[in-house]
Amino acid sequence: MIKLKGSGVCSGIVIGRIAYIDRSAPDVRMVRADDPAVEMKRVEEAKAVARAQLSELYEKTLEDVGEESAQIFNIQRMMLDDQDYNNAVKNIITADKLNAEYAVAVTADNFEMMLSSMQDDYMRARSADVRDLSDRLIRCLNGKAQAENSFSGERIICAFDLTPSETVQMDKSNVLAMVTAVGSSVSHAAILAKTMGIPAVVGVGRKLSSEYNGELAAVDGTDGVIYIDPDENTLAELEAKHKEELKHREIVKKLKGRSTATRDGRKINLYANIGGVSDVEAVIANDAEGIGLFRSEFLYMEGKTLPSEEVQFAAYKKVIEAMDGKRVIVRTMDIGADKKTDCLDLEPEENPAMGYRAIRICLNNGDIFKTQLRALYRASAYGKLAIMFPMIISAGEIRTAKYFVDEVRSELRAEGIPFDENVEIGIMIETPAAAVISDILANEVDFFSIGTNDLTQYTLAIDRQNPVLEEFYDPYHPALKRMIKTVIDNAHAAGIWVGICGELGSDPHMTDWLIKAGIDEISVSPSMVLEIRGRISETEASI
Ligand code: PEP
Ligand code: MG
Question: What is the model's pTM?
């Protein structure tokens, strides 16, 4: 048995087989091929396998995510038959008498370089497709295609690391747990796993590798451990712990349908955080009273082009309608740091967490921002929408953002498109600057939502992505508590309400403190709603 310890992100105990996602680029060596016909036959066979895989991926993405994202695989399937690409591969095999893998790799390099230097945005975006497709073809040639296909059925997904977009695109019904070698518990991939309610462990170390693909393992998401090839004793202990957890869950389930209030009767709005439309099911199943944070940026991470107004409108409308009149707070696009997208042509940065991101991109690109605001306002006609802006550091930013809001409202009015005139506008308080001047910012908005994930990283100067710093990432630091208290007091002094949507809100150890500090709303991962409702009901609001 091998025991690897990391940080538990989402509780739960599961046993199953490992599917290791190997994202490393395939290893290619140049080998002399005396019989080009043999190599050409191998290429044709690999293309047939790749074609079948791409068709399967197209169908799956179409069903799970939608047509726009699924098209990526259609485009790659067409590229497989591109004459120039195929001629280039053939040339290297027949004229230079070299192996198929090498011919594909060199062709990929040349096409990638040529496409990425083009002026046309669409063609430039295709360079990533050529690379993706060629890597697939090489994996098919060297027999590694099997590993990728072995994800069917329920599996414990293991990887060196997972990006937020990989996490969000996973087929939840087949994922028993997620375990990564690196990664921190407040990274977005980890937060998404929690939102989806999937037991998850991050940072178990580099011993977790592809050699364990297919092995039996047990994951303890509560203590943050993966046991590979677990022995009898361990399985028995985990079984007992699993039963205890189920018992606790049954007790907590009884809080469904109850209103959320402290022991002395103070009402607290208990909401849930989501990453996409598919998470709403868990929000409703766990009886959240609203959505406190819809991370809309994931809509920008699904495809290679910007989500259109129609695509966004459909997503927001679906969520708002499903919540049936309960408040839905959508945060405008917060791309940046670990949340990367192919659909914005952003330069690589030395320090992306403190880089060109979120509201900074929106205010510089009015067309992109207004597309999102139009979609949001159109969707507001279907329920109770609130909008908030991320990464705010000044009152000027809020005023500029509201200028775009006013423009959109005027346009919709002129076009006769209905929308809610009373959509609340708020901001995330997730930079120390915003917390310190929250008395000034409170005059500009209807509400605050405290984002403790980033507020912790920026206040303590600790990169939330870096697992080495996990022991120093202290969300209970007195500097943070002081800031949170100041923000709450400043909000109330200005007559606005204030919530928390960072992970600290999901921490049962902090519930009592937050309530006594005066918080009005707490937004947590869907799987934590009932647990926190229980905590709130045990708390006295008065000090
Ligand atoms: C936060 O920073 O606390 C937050 C809720 O936003 P995100 O985790 O998406 O950065
Ligand atoms: Mg944040």
Answer: 0.78
Return the HEC string of 28-80: CCCCECCCHHHHHHHHHHHHHHHHHHHHHHHHHHHHHCCHHHHHHHHHHHHHC
Q: Express each pLDDT in 125-161 by its tens digit.
A: 787 788 888 988 998 898 765 444 345 578 999 999 8
What residue type is 478 in one-letter code?
P
- How much distance in Å is there from the Cα of 216 to the middle of ligand 2? 36
**Which residue out of 185, 195, 295 has the highest number of ligand 1 atoms within 8 Å of its CB and is therefore the one to mutate?**
295
Annotated catalytic sites, by residue? 188, 501
- Element (DSSP H or E) covering residue 429: strand 424-429
Measured in residues, the chain has a length of: 543
Q: What is the pLDDT of residues 79-125, one digit of tens each?
A: 999 999 999 999 999 999 999 999 999 999 999 888 878 877 777 77
Structure tokens given for 482:
């002081």
Which pair of structure tokens corresponds to residue 159?
A: 């990887």
CA of 295 to the centre of ligand 2 (A): 10
Indicate which residue's Cα is closest to atom 3 of ligand 1.
451
